[in-house]
Fold this protein.
Amino acid sequence: MKEVTIIGVDLAKHVFQVHGATADGSVVLRKTLSRSQFRRFMAEQPTCVVAMEACATAHYWSRQMAEIGHDVRLIAPIYVKPFVKRQKNDAADAEAIVEAALRPNMRFVPVKSAETQAHTMLFRTREQLVSQRTEAINALRGHLAEFGLIAPQGVSNLPRLVELIDDADSDLPDLARDLARLHLERIAHLSALIDQLAQKIKEVSRKSVVARVLRTMPGVGPICAMAIEAFAPGMDTFKSGRDFSAWLGLIPRQHSTGGKQRLGRTSKMGQRDIRRLLIIGAMSVIASAQRYKRKSGAWLQDKLNRKPRIVAAIALANKMARRIWAMLTKGETYNASVSAPA
């Protein structure tokens, strides 16, 4: 029997599909294993390459396989899809993972540590609570609008909603008033939880060397710094600042052919959390400069003179991403006099 040199695993909650192959891709084994069987089976295999899609539980199993001694490679699902032959099933997926992992130019996803995943959980939990609070506020606004009580959007206009509910001269029925106060209690509870997690994020970012370096850049706060540390791979993964910016989806989308370059809108094909926070940070830099009449620099001022503010903010976010790559690769804090790397 030929020796297995690579094993592709299609992960699931309870049933795992395993596809073993030699270095040239010849099939050696195909197995369907339960969760407990999978762990025992992999422990019995000689040291080899274990390839998996970077999906749910992939980082956990990657750490488990690394402890056994295997060489783990995680692949983004979008890079596995082209290798699936005709019918879509677990066996075909496992085979496609092996085919993708054998490509010499394949890009792999770095395995996250348990601590990094905990930071990811902290960030995602806060995002979920913010979304729930926004949903509750919009629901309350919608209910009050049915009684002719209109308030502007946004959490900053929550006091206006309270005034409308407490107004004794309005014709709001008592039942509707009681239900509206129930919404307010839920919103207040969510706000308290969000504040607790924001404080936790600040504490974590103060302890992190990377976060402290990132926070020296204008527009990068504790939440953005944590997102970069939690979701971005090591900066040595990228050859240049432009590669990191492209990974975030902050560069123009290309549709070039025949030697003629055609650049379109921002691709948005990267890590959406970091991209969104960098754009928000860039907007805050622009707003701060305009509010306090600060000099925004010739480059940014030229963008603001020629383009809408949101377009200038995206361009600034692109520049911020390149500077973040330079800061982290060189281990330096932010220096406004240094131009962004190419």
Summary: The chain has 13 helices and seven strands. The radius of gyration is 25 Å. The mean pLDDT is 90. Strands lie at 6-10, 15-21, 27-34, 49-53, 71-75, 252-254, 263-266.
